[in-house]
Amino acid sequence: MSQQLDPEPDEGSLTADRDGGILRLTLDRPSRRNSLSQPMIEAFVAALTEAASDDTLRAIYIRGAGDDFCAGADWVATNDGRQPRPRVGHLVRRIPHTSHRVIELIQTVQLPVVCAVRGWAVGLGCNLALASDFTVAASDAMFWEPFVARGFSPDSGATWLLPRLVGLARAKRMLLLGEKINGTDAADWGLIHRAVSAQDLDGAAEQLVGRLASGPTVAIGLAKQAIDFGQHATLSQGMTQELHGLELACRTADFKEGLAAFQERRPPEFHGR
Questions:
Q1: How many domains does the chain have?
Q2: 192 lies in the same domain as 120
Q3: CB 269 within 8 A of CB 257
Q4: Domain containing 119: what range?
Q5: Per residue in 58-75, pLDDT tens?
Q6: What CATH number does residue 259 fall under?
Q7: Within a domain: residue 5?
Q8: CA 17 from chain center: how many Å?
Q9: What does the pLDDT look like over 120-164, one tens digit per residue?
Q10: Do 185 and 235 have their domain in common?
Q11: What are the boundaries of the region Disordered (predicted)?
Q12: What is the CATH number of the domain that holds 206?
């Protein structure tokens, strides 16, 4: 006698839309607070990987559909008993190529990444916001690292990102005590770029991503790379990295435009080249 299984849960999707030089990535699974299913994470990796080598892009904008940003990885679906128990070491083999890869790509892609957060940003969702270059959140949004509260240790960059953004004491409050931080406090702590009212969130994020998309894309990417490199380098090594970036930036059309605009006392018109 065959067993009838319940229908598969909604796996959601990652919507990728091009708007000129802006790539808009929307986590679209509002029925599960945009928790990331395995197909969504795989689509995220693919979209960011493609964006990294797309010379027509100038900025990336990440947001969630509905009332929440992202409730993290969908561990409920992963552990629902539908699939055979994986071999020992499954997480160590898989996660570096999925959720961890998403965080790495956000950190290393030479494009500015803006994230808009409303509602909950939990676990992997919280770390997506922390890894982005600029996160704008509603003042009543909630950032939560629930790993220890669920009985397992942090992942997706939480232990690397948080201490660098807010210091050890506050990082331990979030990671070991599981404290939830609202958008206003997150901005005050330096966890995110800015907190605004819920009704102003979309406008503030759009204004920021538009400003970045109209900037000197190559120079912004090289500056981002140098900042990241400097997190684990000496001053001398950091300045050497800056020199390599400067050598490349000075060869761009945007550099020439920046000089011309300065000489002519007008705003520059950068084209990302």
A1: 2
A2: yes
A3: yes
A4: 13-214
A5: 999 999 999 999 999 886
A6: 1.10.12
A7: no
A8: 17
A9: 999 999 999 999 999 999 999 999 999 888 888 888 999 999 999
A10: no
A11: 1-20
A12: 3.90.226.10
Q: Residue 183 and residue 118: Cα distance in Å, rounded? A: 9
- Give the amino acid at 176: L
Task: Give dist(CA 161, CA 245) in Å, integer.
Answer: 24
Q: How far apart are CA 77 and CA 87, in angstroms?
A: 18
Would you state the structure tokens that stand for residue 241, as one six-digit string? Answer: 């990295």
Same domain, 47 and 157: yes
> Nearest CA to 3 among 77, 84, 82?
82
pTM, two decimals, is 0.89
